[in-house]
Each structure stands twice: as structure tokens, then as C-alpha cells.
């Protein structure tokens, strides 16, 4: 109970601070809230990929009269509680009551860190996987099979790509059932797999096909995480900075849990070869391996952008069960020195992950401020859509959030995180150029924000910057005779290059 209260306080921090929304102007939450605003205004559910998330936020807003962005943190908190509870219940059902308590302890840290405190349909969907696996394991009658199908539909409605992985879970479970000669559950495997695949094709099948095609395309062109790693290596940072900023701060929770989860899989494999391991943990180990292979296929392409934690989400989920089981197994052999050492190490892993998850969930300078939304709203209302816009760390999600789904799709792109022609060069292009006209030519909108300067300083300090701009660059554009200021609200400036 104290843990739930502590997390309630943690999740309420952005509400207390009064942010417009927690996340950067690049966050997917902006897009989702844009779709929600259209549902609220016209009552029509668009043909988007995540209907359950959009309907949930729409109904909460309609029933309470509060704006949809108010529910970003409460909904994320409730799904985090669902994940913790689901792991506990599934751990009890698979390994026994005592082992389930250790799985509960392993599930408490924010293993997905900052990804657990934003609007992400894939995270909502993955929270149902533990309960789905348990009902699949217990599905010996019609009632339990119906419950399993309900969870399957919920996962599909929240995130079709997660339901694609759910077919992998079913396939692994069915194979384990056959190999372990426990045939009581085998009949449910194939119908569930077929049902889930049919649901995927029914809901936005063209986009799911695009995701799958992206794996093959990305693998052929060397994109995705490989590109990210190459960019990091060429950023000019030393090895120490890369390790601290990425392997510890950004991905530390995943590195710890998946790393030690993999070691436990090796231990379980060794014991299984010697015929001394229970079947359920063998099945969970197989799910861990399948999740890892699924993540590798995504990493080979550009399906889930460049976030290793998101790419490894399924492997990370089953790491919770493995670490919980490892803690329980060590406690059962506490008279042995090796077991006591293993127990101490795993306890440190859980505690370190808890500290990392809570400590890195709220990174500096992430929030979308009211001034950013106010300035962007003014710009979208008054801009000439035929004139190109240059900005930094802005996405089309801002446009969706302000204009709604339908209008944003019908309008020309104002902001983009992907189009190179919409980006501001480092130092606003003043490196080697005297004026903005020399950099951009003519007739351009240039948007600068104080949060961009803060972000640049936090990323690069006093060193050479690879992206972004500094206060010195803002002073240069202030004194640049080739541009004029069209709008300002203090931290947000819109410049026009004639």
C-alpha cells in the first residue's frame, strides 16, 4: 500500500507543476490527444491504430468535464498498477504463492522508466500480457477460455503490434505444452492465434503491414538502432559520457533487468539439461528468448524508431518474472553460500532499478510548456501555409494537439521531427554565415524557443554541439537585419525571413 501511495505522489508531480503536458514537443502523447479532441468534438472515432486508448481518454474527459490531457498521469498510474498486480497474480499462478511475492517485488520498480508516465498504447497493452498468459495457462474450461479471449481483444484494441507479439506468446506456450506433454491446454492455442491475427488485419492492417515491411527495409538499409549507435559514436563524446548518459541514465533499468534475466535463463537452461527444473519457469525462459528475438527483428529495421527500451519491451517484461523467480529460488537455498550471494546481487539489482526508474522518469526540460502551445497556436492560425517553417525539437504532434486529427491531416505540415527541410541547423546556421538570409535564402519562418537553449546546454555543456543552438545564437538572430520578429511571448519567438 505504501508503494502505491508513493507512486501516486510520483505520478502527480506534473499535475502539481501545472505543465500543459508532460513530455517534449516530440512526444506521441500530443498526437493521441489530438485524436481524442476530435472524438470529443464530433463524436466520430477515426480509423486510427489505437481505438481503445482514444476512446478511454475521450470517455474520461466527457464524463468528468475535464480536459483530456489531465488524465495523462492518472491513466498511466493505473496501468502501472495493473502491470504490477498482473505480474504478482501471474507469478503466483505459475510458480506458487511464495514465489509470486518475489515476482511482486521484482515488478515494483519502474522498469520502463519515463515510458510509463506518458500516453503510450503499447505500454497499456503490455500490462495485460501477464494476466493473459495466466488465463492461457489456466484455460481448461469455457469460462477461462472466454477470459483469455477478452484479454486478447483488449491487447489488440490497445496496440495491434503488441497483439502480434501475443501470437508469439501463444505459439511458445503451445509448443511448451506439447513438449512438456501437458496437453490439456493445447486446443486453445491455434484458435487464439488465428483470432488475434484476424483482429490485427481488421484494425488498421495497412499500417501493420507497413511496420512489418519496415523491418525488412531497415535491415537492408542498416537503419534503426544501428544508425542511432553510429550517430552516438560519431557525436564526439567520450566513452564515459556515452556509458553514463545511455547505458545508465536512459537505458539503465532495461540493461539491469534484461542482463540479469539473461543470466537466470542460462542457469535455468543448465538445470533443465540436468532435469532439475520446473516446467513453468522453462516456459517463461522461452518467452524471454522469444521476446529478445522479436526485439532484434524490430531493431534490424526502423519500426520503433531508436529507443532500445521500447524495442526490448517484451523481453523486459519476462525479465520481471525471471528475477522474481531467481530471488525465490535463492531464498529456498539460503544455507548455501552461492545462493546467499546470488540473493544479495538480485536484491541490489531490484533496488538499483527502482532508484534508476524513479530517478530518471522525469528528465530535465521535457515538459511541453503553456508558452510553447500558445505560440504554436498563434502561428498555426496566422501563418502562410505556402511558406516553409524551420524549428528545433518540434513534431507534427504539436499540430495534432492544437488543430485536432482531421484538420491537422488536411493542413500542410508546419512542424516535423523527420523532414530535414523543417529543421534548424546547429547554431541557427551562423557558423560560417553572417546572416539568416545566407543560410536559408528567402521567405522562411524560423521558430526559436528558450527550452531549446536549455536542452542544448544540458546535452553538450560548454563543448561542441552537434545539434541545437545557444543563447549567443539567439542574440545573433535578434541583431540580424535580414529577419523580423513576427511574434513573441517571451520564451517562444517566431521570426520571418523576407
From TrEMBL:
Coiled coil: none annotated. Signal peptide: none annotated. The chain crosses the membrane at residues 75-95, 102-134, 146-176, 188-204, 248-268, 288-305, 311-329, 341-362. Keywords: Membrane, Transmembrane, Transmembrane helix. It comes from the Archaea. This is Glycosyltransferase RgtA/B/C/D-like domain-containing protein.
